[in-house]
Design the sequence.
């Protein structure tokens, strides 16, 4: 029994005449009569009474047609669901990210993706770079946003592309003597009470700070340690000291604070988007399309990295 048999039976019940039903279906009458007869033999009961007044469903036919309508509705729904899944409009995306990615560019990306793909279930987890890399390699995440590229065994099986470049900036209270100035020098920072991050990604940022201020800098040794960039800004606003962090902090201004550049300019590790090279799921492709449109400068690098992973 095929779906067309169900459609033929429903058309015959609707038009109550073999000729009219065949015309509506776009087939000749003899093939329709034969198909209905074959269907009745397969069901094991007459589905229609053939009378001079027309063709009408029997009791068995009414019961069959009720199920046939539901079956065709389910088939249509299955085709629709398959198409939506193939276009990445349904499914699940598991994303691991470091906290500072929520300053930029993740908010804009998530808003756009959620607006355009409302039926995709987003599973978001804040986690350090080392943890998200391990989760990505273990198949527990679909995408990871890390500080610097993933490293370690298996990282060569990932596609990674920078989605944000950062450099060191300082933040202080508007009551601080340096507030209002465009920049602060390394020599000035060495004389300040500093506030630095102690998050799980601190080693990457800490290396940059030690290179800038000196490996055994007293300013770093006596620094106030904050959990993340939001805490750095909050403590700076409270007058605790001068906070040092990524330029993404500029996306989270707070009353009573002043941001300025650090000279010389000190690059920090890139914000990097990574996913498994073998993952060709439609939902991931849709997410990458959102990245391309929301972060235009990323698109060319992403497409280049994807081309490198294509089999020859």
Sequence:
């Amino acid at each position: 029994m095929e779906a067309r048999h169900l459609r033929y039976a429903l058309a015959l019940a609707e038009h109550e005449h073999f000729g009219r039903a065949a015309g509506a279906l776009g087939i000749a009458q003899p093939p329709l009569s034969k198909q209905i007869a074959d269907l009745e033999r397969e069901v094991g009961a007459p589905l229609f009474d053939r009378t001079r007044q027309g063709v009408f469903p029997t009791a068995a036919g009414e019961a069959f047609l009720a199920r046939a309508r539901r079956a065709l509705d389910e088939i249509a729904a299955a085709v629709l669901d398959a198409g939506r899944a193939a276009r990445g409009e349904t499914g699940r995306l598991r994303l691991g990210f470091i906290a500072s990615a929520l300053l930029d560019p993740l908010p804009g990306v998530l808003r756009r993706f959620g607006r355009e793909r409302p039926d995709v279930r987003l599973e978001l987890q804040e986690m350090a770079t080392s943890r998200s890399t391990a989760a990505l390699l273990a198949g527990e995440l679909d995408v990871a946003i890390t500080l610097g590229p993933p490293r370690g065994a298996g990282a060569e099986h990932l596609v990674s592309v920078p989605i944000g470049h950062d450099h060191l900036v300082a933040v202080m209270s508007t009551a601080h003597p340096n507030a209002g100035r465009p920049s602060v020098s390394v020599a000035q920072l060495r004389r300040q009470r500093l506030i630095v991050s102690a998050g799980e990604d601190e080693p990457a940022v800490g290396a940059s700070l030690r290179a800038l201020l000196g490996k055994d800098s007293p300013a770093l040794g006596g620094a106030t340690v904050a959990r993340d960039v939001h805490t750095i800004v909050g403590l700076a606003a409270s007058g605790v000291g001068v906070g040092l962090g990524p330029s993404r902090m500029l996306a989270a201004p707070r009353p009573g604070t002043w941001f300025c550049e650090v000279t010389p300019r000190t690059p920090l590790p890139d914000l990097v988007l990574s996913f498994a090279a073998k993952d060709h799921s439609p939902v991931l492709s849709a997410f990458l399309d959102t990245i391309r449109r929301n972060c235009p400068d990323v698109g060319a690098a992403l497409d280049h990295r994807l081309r490198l992973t294509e089999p020859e």
Q: What stands out?
A: The chain has a mean pLDDT of 89. The chain has three domains: 3-86, 91-159+272-309, 164-269.
